[in-house]
Design brief:
- The complex is a heterotrimer of chains A (97), B (92) and C (312).
- By secondary structure, chain B is mainly alpha-helical.
- The relative contact order of chain B is 0.13.
- Chain C is mainly alpha-helical.
- Chains in contact: A-B, A-C, B-C.
- The interface between A and B is large, with 51 and 50 residues.
Chain lengths: 97, 92, 312
């Protein structure tokens, strides 16, 4: 049982780290601010979600599990809000301001 | 397992560093506004990995606080960039 | 070289690079963002050094309030930015500043690296006397019991800082403020965020205050979270900052230090010493002081970092 949990954790955390890398590659390679915004919030959030999934398998108490899920929800919420706001700035100022 | 988790934390930190240097050098001001969000998401990931690697539950509280407040700098920046006409200048 | 050590070295290198960047960059807004990033990375450093209470405070202040405060200041200085970047300090002045900074950094590094072994510390004494208050968190014990005088004076200093800021502000702001609700979009994204997040933030703030008794946390971090939530609501334009002349505002501002002072004088009156807690009531008294302090800190920090009174 322990071995299965360990393997699952390793898989989930590795997948999460992979998506973080994908997000960073997007940040480095995408041509303008709006696409970079996508890479930042979507890919990194998915990476964080997978990492939290892997970490969830190792916690003992339900309170900590609740905190972990709230952390993920909060980061998603703030990511969504920040995306909308920054996109509004880009829309008003044009893509190369 | 602890070594693996620390290694993943180091990897995520390296990705955040790479991303930081890109968007802080970025041409538009909108890029700068993303920096806090990037460090917020990456920082939360690093903190949670460390919390499990060192088996210290209070670090999850730090991650919770970071998740709660990470958006603030971006919001303040956007608010200043816009002034009063902050969103949808045209409504249908 | 273990993985943890490599991680810490990488983190330290990144921190130095970001710090150098914050100094080198020309644009004020970028500098503030880089500085906030530096603060958030510093929070991770505190965690690697096992200073969780410090990490909590750094994450709270460094992300929310520092950003708002410095960006507001940068916006206010925008008219002067062009002439001030035109005048560059002379090379000798910059060299002197660099030498001074390097000397201070070297002195600090030497102080840390050449600590006597075993390091002189009061930590065992503080941990051994934890039974005096019944609280499990040694940091809270030190802050609220063993060095309570320092904490009380810090709150008074915070109040004085706000009074100082108010006395410099222009007179037209001491009465009614112009209503920013006209400018905010009530259906917009920011208003939605400002309605959704504060309840969560308040719950987290109360949780951090409560858990500070036995685990990392405490009044200051909780007050900062509440201040940040208030700032969010102000920035979204859902409410107006109360004017300086408001009666209940002033009551909350002095509540923290006053409760502290009353408890301290009570200890003196009962014959023991200033700020001595009777052992049976130590925990409820400390909790009462912390609740009052949290409210005071929240309102003070919110007003200090406050929403700009006019557009940038």
């Amino acid at each position: 049982m322990n071995l299965v949990l360990n393997i699952l954790t390793v898989c989930a955390v590795s997948a999460g780290a992979f998506f973080f890398m994908a997000g960073t590659i997007g940040l480095l390679r995408f041509p303008d601010a709006l696409t970079r915004l996508h890479a930042l919030t979507k890919a990194d959030n998915l990476g964080l979600g997978l990492i939290i999934l892997g970490v969830l398998l190792r916690v003992a108490e339900p309170l900590i599990a609740l905190k972990l899920v709230s952390v993920w929800l909060l980061v998603q919420l703030s990511g969504a809000i920040v995306t909308q706001l920054i996109a509004g700035v880009v829309r008003q100022r044009g893509l190369n301001a | 397992m602890a070594n693996f988790l620390f290694g993943s934390a180091a990897f995520v930190l390296a990705m955040v560093a790479l991303g930081l240097f890109r968007i802080l050098f970025g041409p538009t001001e909108a890029d700068r506004m993303m920096a806090a969000q990037l460090v917020g998401t990456g920082g939360v990931a690093v903190l949670l990995l460390m919390a499990v690697a060192t088996e210290t539950p209070p670090i999850v509280d730090v991650a919770l606080m970071l998740a709660l407040l990470a958006a603030f700098v971006s919001i303040t920046f956007v608010k200043g960039a816009f002034g009063s006409k902050i969103e949808n200048p045209r409504r249908p | 070289m273990t993985v943890a050590f490599a991680f810490e070295v990488g983190l330290a290198a990144l921190l130095v690079a970001i710090a150098a960047w914050a100094i080198a960059v020309r644009n004020a807004f970028t500098a503030v963002v880089v500085f906030v990033v530096y603060g958030l990375l510093l929070a991770i450093v505190w965690v690697t050094l096992s200073a969780i209470d410090l990490a909590l405070t750094e994450a709270a202040i460094g992300s929310g309030l520092t950003g708002a405060l410095l960006l507001g200041a940068a916006a206010r200085l925008r008219p002067t930015e062009t002439p001030s970047t035109a005048e560059c300090p002379s090379a000798i002045l910059r060299l002197a500043a660099a030498l001074l900074s390097a000397t201070v950094a070297a002195a600090l590094a030497a102080g840390v690296l050449f600590l006597p072994d075993p390091t002189p510390t009061l930590a065992p004494a503080a941990a051994a006397n934890a039974a005096a208050t019944g609280l499990g968190n040694p940091i809270t014990n030190v802050l609220m019991a063993f060095r309570a005088m320092d904490t009380m004076l810090e709150k008074v200093v915070l109040l004085l800082a706000l009074v100082g800021a108010w006395s410099i502000a222009s007179d037209r702001l001491s009465g009614e403020r112009s209503d920013p609700r006209r400018q905010a979009d009530p259906d917009g994204v920011l208003a939605f965020f400002a309605r959704l997040l504060p309840p969560v933030g308040i719950v987290v703030g109360i949780y951090i205050l409560w858990v500070g008794a036995d685990h990392p946390g405490g009044a200051f971090q909780a007050g900062t979270i509440l201040a940040a939530m208030w700032l969010l609501v102000l920035m979204a334009g859902l409410t107006v900052a109360p004017p300086m002349s408001c009666r209940w505002l002033r009551l909350i501002l002095v509540a923290g230090p006053v409760v502290f002072l009353v408890v301290g004088l009570g200890g003196l009156w009962m014959g023991a010493a200033f700020l001595a807690y009777p052992p049976a009531f130590a925990k409820p008294l400390i909790l009462a002081i912390e609740v009052a302090m949290t409210l005071t800190i929240a309102v003070t920090l919110g007003l200090l970092a406050g929403a700009p009174e006019r557009e940038w």
